[in-house]
Amino acid sequence: MWRSSITSSLKKISLSAPACQTTQGVTRPLLFHFQCFSTTTTSPSTSISASQSPTLTSDPLKSGLGFSGKSDGIRAFASTSTAAFSVSSLAPAKAWDVVRLARHYGNCYSELSKARLSMLVVATSGTGFILGSGSAVDVAGLCWTCGGTMMVAAAANSLNQVFEVNNDGKMKRTRQRPLPSGRISIHHAITWASSVGIAGTTLLACKTNMLAAGLAASNLLLYAFVYTPLKQIHPVNTWVGAIVGAIPPLLGWAAASGDISINSMILPAALYFWQIPHFMALAYMCRNDYAAGGYKMISLLDASGQKTSLVALRNCLYLIPLGFFAYDWGLASGWFCMESSILTLAISATAFSFYRDRTMQKARKMFYASLLYLPVFMSGILFHRISDDQQHLDVNNSHKFPEILSHSGTSVDDNDDHTEVRTRQINGGPQRRPPVAYASYAPFPFLPAPSYDAYS
């Protein structure tokens, strides 16, 4: 019986041997992949070491599964996987460093360029371009003009900060700029300003015309090399800065039309007279800062503020006839004349309030009113502008309705010499009258007396 039990046991073992071999063939690759996975996901300190290799070879299970001669291969695979994991982990870090570096220099360039002020300059240049375009606006030309103006304005503002780095470091509102705070070097700022200035001028010369490029280059030189040093010499710097601010709309007009006419001076005149009360309010509110920075502003020599407020009020009053000139010279409709007059009287009221009560609160109120005035004025003149097609339509209507002229007491004549007379009376007023002569009726008595012999 004992022998028979042993015999049966041996038969069972022999019968189960193929199954065992089959199981070994299945489990060997699974365990190998599991070992590789565990090796790649552990740190180098937990990888297979030389001291662990005897344990691995002496293990009968692993020895039976075929791992006894492959410990060196596992270690090589583990080291390769660890190196690959380290490289892949460094890639996001380097990408994040590039993003942070780009963000840093982007902020520095934006502050050097005074992005919001430059955008205002671009808006005035674009408005001048549309006004000078007539009935059809070249959208591509408008984009090129705005882009070139933005580059030149950025260059001018950057050079302004390069020259005033020591002064800005002494003022509270400017000491955190990129140059005084040391976030960017002076040589880097000069390189940036030179690059964008040359690029902007070249862009205007190639895509618009040389007149616009010349105005942009001259404005850059005037702002950086005349207005900037003059701020530390004499209070007249405010009026020179007003000229700088008045050139961009003239640049836009020249880019669109290729020339400069008397109508192109309306928007620059508005910019010039508007900047004086704007700067006077700012100089009064920040006079302690300007004194600390070493700037020669009119508010520093006017302790009571009377002269500062009077200059602001006087230049607000100079804005009143501009709406009428725009209407009379055929640039805008009569609605703009009325709206411009109301708007100018509103800002003049804030200036008069500042003149009567020279306090910080009144100066701030006039400053906010000046910020509101410019976009409303430009929007109004764009909305009510008269295109060339409308002007030609008025002339054609004068030939279709000659009976209207009989009610005004003017004889109807078919001669071409009287065409302009008929057009003026149909429109209810003078049309395209010589602006210089007509301006003698405005508060400019030094201009020559008007002569309308050609119109009688």
TrEMBL record:
Annotated localization: Membrane
UniProt-listed InterPro entries: Protohaem_IX_farnesylTrfase, UbiA_prenyltransferase, UbiA_sf
Domain of life: Eukaryota
UniProt topology in membrane: Multi-pass membrane protein
Gene Ontology MF, one: protoheme IX farnesyltransferase activity
Keywords from the named record: Heme biosynthesis, Membrane, Transferase, Transmembrane, Transmembrane helix
NCBIfam families: cyoE_ctaB
Protein's name according to its UniProt entry: Heme O synthase
